[in-house]
Automatic annotation (TrEMBL):
<dbReference type="InterPro" id="IPR058625">
    <property type="entry name" value="MdtA-like_BSH"/>
</dbReference>
<dbReference type="Pfam" id="PF25944">
    <property type="entry name" value="Beta-barrel_RND"/>
</dbReference>
<keyword id="KW-0732">Signal</keyword>
<protein>
    <submittedName>
        <fullName>Efflux RND transporter periplasmic adaptor subunit</fullName>
    </submittedName>
</protein>
<comment type="similarity">
    <text>Belongs to the membrane fusion protein (MFP) (TC 8.A.1) family.</text>
</comment>
<dbReference type="InterPro" id="IPR058627">
    <property type="entry name" value="MdtA-like_C"/>
</dbReference>
<dbReference type="Pfam" id="PF25917">
    <property type="entry name" value="BSH_RND"/>
</dbReference>
<feature type="domain" description="Multidrug resistance protein MdtA-like beta-barrel">
    <location>
        <begin position="223"/>
        <end position="283"/>
    </location>
</feature>
<dbReference type="InterPro" id="IPR058624">
    <property type="entry name" value="MdtA-like_HH"/>
</dbReference>
<dbReference type="InterPro" id="IPR058626">
    <property type="entry name" value="MdtA-like_b-barrel"/>
</dbReference>
<feature type="domain" description="Multidrug resistance protein MdtA-like C-terminal permuted SH3">
    <location>
        <begin position="301"/>
        <end position="350"/>
    </location>
</feature>
<feature type="signal peptide">
    <location>
        <begin position="1"/>
        <end position="19"/>
    </location>
</feature>
<dbReference type="Pfam" id="PF25876">
    <property type="entry name" value="HH_MFP_RND"/>
</dbReference>
<dbReference type="Pfam" id="PF25967">
    <property type="entry name" value="RND-MFP_C"/>
</dbReference>
<feature type="domain" description="Multidrug resistance protein MdtA-like barrel-sandwich hybrid">
    <location>
        <begin position="56"/>
        <end position="193"/>
    </location>
</feature>
<feature type="domain" description="Multidrug resistance protein MdtA-like alpha-helical hairpin">
    <location>
        <begin position="98"/>
        <end position="166"/>
    </location>
</feature>
<dbReference type="InterPro" id="IPR006143">
    <property type="entry name" value="RND_pump_MFP"/>
</dbReference>
Length: 377
């Protein structure tokens, strides 16, 4: 056999061996974790920033003028309705009460005399012992003295009220602020601020919603008279407090384009204080069949969002999706996916290009909650 033919056969044999070696060294498909997309009922929530306010706030002012004799409370403490807070020097008002009582006694004595004289005048007029004019004068004096008694009774009642007002008591139960005036200072009626008092349980949380969220939440307000909301304070994890939506403003704010809402929340432990910031989570939409996907599976390419879908041949496909609000660790997929499709959630860094073969490992969605569980947090 010619030498050049032997060399050619050897080259072909060597090339075949190298091809077999390359084929044998090809890496196996990379394992990735996938979830199977399924439709389920879901309640979508949105987060808002709110401000805590007390349902009842009282600026306590003196109702009579006088010098402060006593400050009877500890600043910042809880008080009960009817507790004594301040006492104004009562001595001038006791004197006025005694004077009014004396004037009433005099007026009643004068009335008794006028009644006797008027009765006697009526008898004498019947026997024509006095003139009709004199009888009329005595009857007029009786009416005048009756009016004087009524005026004296009113003056006594007013004096007693003023004396009662020297003791400034809590009109509501709640937490009292600091004393704005101390013992020995003059308090002027209806002017001097003594202290402030706020109710503590329950509390209000006011927040504002944009028009889009308000439009989406209308269905809740027709189906449910008082929808539940979730509330969290600064420094707290999540939304541990449950409140009830009890007020919606009757018009949009024309300057901000927002609608004001108010939630009522129980405060037995005093965690809420007026003026605090609060985070509020309110239901905005009820979906019968929603596709919720772990947000780790959704990637971003500039302004577009996409996921990697594993087809029946275990090849990856890049799929653009339209997303909605996030719910816990999941995001709503409005379009781009169908129930039953498999989406990569872990191992995305292993996918180098669309169409790459992978070894899918089916897992459950992490952080998945049903609509009922979400609503009952």
């Amino acid at each position: 056999m010619p030498k050049h033919i032997l060399i050619g056969l050897a080259a072909l044999l060597l090339a075949g061996c190298n091809a077999d070696d390359t084929e044998g060294q090809r890496p196996p498909p990379m394992p990735v974790e996938v979830v199977e997309v399924s439709a389920e009922p879901a309640t979508l929530w949105n987060d808002f920033t709110g401000r805590v306010a007390a349902p009842e706030t009282v600026q306590l002012r003196a109702r009579v003028s006088g010098y402060i004799d006593k400050v009877a409370f500890t600043e910042g403490e809880l008080v009960t309705r009817g507790d004594l807070l301040f006492e104004i020097d009562p001595r001038p008002y006791r004197a006025r009460e005694r004077a009014a009582q004396a004037e009433l006694t005099r007026a009643r004595s004068q009335l008794a005399l006028s009644q006797s004289r008027a009765q006697r005048a009526s008898q004498l007029l019947a026997s024509r012992a006095i003139s009709r004019e004199e009888n009329d004068q005595r009857q007029a004096a009786l009416a005048s003295d009756r009016a004087a008694v009524s005026a004296a009774e009113a003056a006594l009642e007013s004096a007693r009220l003023d004396l009662q007002f020297t003791q400034v008591k809590a009109p509501i139960s709640g937490r009292v602020g600091r004393a704005q005036i101390t013992r020995g200072n003059l308090a002027s009626a209806d002017e001097t601020l003594l202290t402030t008092l706020v109710s503590v349980d329950p509390m209000y949380v006011y927040f504002e919603s944009d028009q889009t969220s308000f439009a989406g939440s209308r269905e809740f307000f027709t189906l449910k008279q008082r929808p539940q909301v979730h509330i969290g304070l600064v420094g707290e994890s999540g939304f541990p407090h449950i409140g009830e939506l009890d007020f919606i403003d009757n018009r949009l704010n024309s300057h901000t384009g927002t609608m004001q809402f108010r939630a009522l929340v129980a405060n037995p432990e005093g965690s809420f204080r007026p003026g605090q910031f609060a985070r509020v989570q309110m239901p905005i939409e009820q979906l019968g069949d929603a596709l919720l996907l772990n947000r780790k599976a959704v990637l971003t390419d500039q302004d577009r969002r996409y996921v990697y879908v594993v087809n029946t041949e275990n090849l990856t496909e890049r799929r653009e999706v339209q997303t909605g609000p996030e719910q816990d660790e999941r995001v709503l997929i409005r379009s781009g996916l169908q129930p039953g499709e498999r989406v990569v959630v872990n191992g995305l860094q292993k996918i180098l290009f669309p169409g790459m073969p992978v070894e899918p490992q089916l897992v459950q969605m992490r952080g998945t909650k049903t609509a009922q569980q979400v609503a009952g947090r």
